[in-house]
Amino acid sequence: MVRGKVQLKRIENASSRQVTFSKRRNGLLKKAYELSVLCDAEIGLIIFSQKGKLYEYCSSNMQNLVERFREYAKKEQIISAEIQQYMQQLKDERTSMEKTIEQLEVSQWRLLGRGLDSCSVEELHEIESHLQQSLRKIRARKAQVFNEEIEQLKVKEKFLLEENSKLREKCASKPPARPKEMMTTHNQCSQREVETGLFIGLPEMHCP
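^ thats the sequence. predicted structure below, dont judge the formating
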């Protein structure tokens, strides 16, 4: 079962408020002491009553502890200021990048021949100049790519010519067939022709 949160409010009765203050104050001071002893924590507690009376507890020296707190708070302020400055710098960079992107998009549209109605003569002249520069760069790159492909084809052609030359040398260096071998090959071919020939008539009438 989940209990609802207790809503705290100021005690209206002055005497009850004073009794509660005394009890809670003593309990708070006791808890601070126990925490400092059990956990070896450096604790400083300052309480002002409604009438301005001071109650305090410190596990060491209160003045040193307060100075340490001030130094820590000062460092926190410096770090917070640096963070805010860094965040502002990021916001400025983001705004600048958004403007740059917007300008680039407008420039791109104009280079594509769109949105030229609002351009002045100077702006149109500038766009024309950019297009001419782009064309020169594109043509230069195109010529470079063609030259590279031609060089690659020349290298490939040279390689194929060398391979062809090697094959011709191998064919030229191979010795021709001897006459005896040619006759043997011819007789084998003739025998095969005889054996595979067709005969008309009955098999027993055939004379070898």
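The radius of gyration is 52 Å.
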